[in-house]
What we know:
The chain is of the alpha+beta class. It has five helices and eleven strands; from the N terminus they run αβββββαβββαβαββα. A hairpin with a 3-residue loop joins strand 7 (about 120-130) and strand 8. The model is unreliable at about 5-10 (pLDDT under 50).
Amino acid sequence: xxxHQHDIERIRMLQYPTINGSKHAPLGKPCIAFQKYDGSNxxxxxxxxxxxxxxxxxKQLFDNNTPLYNQxxxxxxxGIADELVYRVKQSNKGIERITAFTEFFGASSFAGSHDFxxxxxxxxFDVFLFKxxxxxxxxxxxxxxxxxxxxxxxxxxxxxxxxxxxxxxxxYPTPEGVICKGDDFMVKVKTNAYFAKLYEKYNxxxxxxxx
Length: 211
């Protein structure tokens, strides 16, 4: 597939924005911190006429014939898809398009690489509504917080230096780290243990996978 085709595929489906590292954290602002899962970012697009018809990794589309990522399709369709639309519609009328963002991973997934044969799971971490934008963090929790497929909330309160330090030092039950979201910002904070694991695997190139 040429570069041109890749560009067309990118344009055709919303891509998740890049998340800044913790040095960009707006300290003192209220946030909700969700567990960050270590896998691959997959996106799913729904429209009223066609239903869920488009699936993508971060950079390209995939379908039932795509090795590895096709494992995610039944997980999404059977465990999340219909209920997600139903729940979003409860508080949003006249939706033209939904893009759902999930993390796809197994027990030994690490830094975007996966064991092909082990069972995987999907965690929903964001939902974008066409012409409306991303669902705000509080609404996300209100809409999906009771479901095991939703990213788990680990902290709610002010984003401060102590919280960042606590995440770094492993005081929260997350191996990789957290995504802190406010109404107008999003930053990631990763654990020192995760950085050490990256260094072990990639040596000096570990920074490319860090924050």
